[in-house]
Amino acid sequence: MIEKNQAATRRVYLDYAATTPMHPDVVQAMIPYMSGMFGNPSSGHSFGQEARAAVEDARVQVALLLGCTNDEIVFTSGGTESDNLAIKGIAYANRDKGNHIITTSIEHPAVLEPCRFLQAQGFDITYLPVDKYGLVDAKAVEKAITKKTILISVMYANNEVGTIEPIIEIGQIAKSRSICFHTDAVQAVGHVSMNVDELSVDLLSVSAHKLSGPKGVGALYVREGTKITSFLHGGEQEHALRASTENVTGIVGLGKAAEIAQGELAKEQKRLSRLRDRLIKGLFDGIDGVRLNGHPKLRLPNNVNVNFEHVEGSAVASHLDMAGVAVSTASACQTGHKGPSHVLMAMGYTEDEARNSVRFSLGRESTASDIDYVLEILPPIIKKLHKASRK
Q1: Residue 61 has pLDDT above 70, yes or no
Q2: Which of 32, 114, 320, 333 to pair with 386, CA 20 to 30 A apart?
């Protein structure tokens, strides 16, 4: 096994679902707006209009990635704000029509917590179950609709296990019933091709730092004509849906990241899928008692979440970290949460099974050599932990 003092010889990052390093071209695009091009995009003079042009160019870049019009993109501080704006914004704007919202039990906290907040305000929330793969049944969504349903929010792909949900089916159901449909696509944007019209979504959340962009910036797609209200009040920025001076530097970074993702998407999707499958096969060939979490086929190209029988995931992650490999046991947003993964529990896992899981997530810088390194050092780690657990 690799000892701690050897860890510096190699570092492998396999936690891209938590965050990604910024693409060099994204950094270069942002630099001018950190110094010389510093204007407020709401100012009427040339400095301000220079910044405004950069924001609008980025709006075009994000819109092209999602297949929508420029005016349907609202820049935010990240995925969490995008989810909150979508859920609270629809809820409060449409309270005269009803108070019922449908979501799933495996959503990111950025969706679950706003729903719980609204529940305390008198809204009725339905949390739909999922199957053993983390899939929600589109028919169950349809069955849950009532005369008071004003919003359906189902994530595009789960951030922990990588399962891709039946978004097109659900979107068609929502559209046929004239109900707003939101999807948290933070983990999927840039990894799989998507078009908002094909998905029949009315709102879609994006986060820059999940696709080689900067932290602290994101976007919400809002279909033209959608009745939504702002919960951040002040100026008239972002179509009066997001008051506050725009984060020009971050927005430029998001725009560039979206442009790069669009250009490389097909190639990267195939490459990451091959690496993902190489890792899965290697784990099953080299380690006994491995179980793949999530759907075996309907999953993100960069996600491998596995359960190691009788071995705690946190111990595996710790030993890998000492060997220079970064992985995670759950969503980064859940760090510090002592309970088992709510996603795996919703999928029917026992607490022990949920605690025995590890997420490997790949990205642009991942290589076959990285995968082979993990497959070399991990079996001895598991054997050592198995031996320790029997004492």
Answers
A1: yes
A2: 333
The answer to whether 250 and 207 are in contact (CB under 8 A) is no
pLDDT at 5 over 50: no
Distance CA 298, CA 162 (A): 8
What is the assigned CATH class of domain 4-21+265-389? alpha beta
Q: pLDDT tens-digit profile of 379-388?
A: 999 999 987 7
Q: What percent of the chain has pLDDT over 90?
A: 89
| Catalytic annotation, residues | 333
Compute φ and ψ for 224, nearest 5 degrees.
Answer: -55, 135
Residue 3 reports pLDDT greater than 50 = no
Alpha-carbon distance 250 to 237, whole Å?
A: 16
| Contact (Cβ atoms closer than 8 angstroms) between residue 356 and residue 312 | yes
Supply the DSSP symbol for 311: S
Element (H, E) at 76: strand 73-76
Overall pTM > 0.85: yes
- The answer to whether residues 186 and 206 touch, using CB atoms and an 8 Å cutoff, is yes
Q: How far apart are CA 223 and CA 73, in angstroms?
A: 9
Q: Are 242 and 76 in contact (CB under 8 A)?
A: yes
Fold of the domain spanning 24-261: Aspartate Aminotransferase; domain 2 (3.40.640)
DSSP string across 172-222: HHHHHTT-EEEEE-TTTBTTB---HHHHT-SEEEEEGGGTTS-SS-EEEEE
- Give the 3-state secondary structure of residue 346: helix
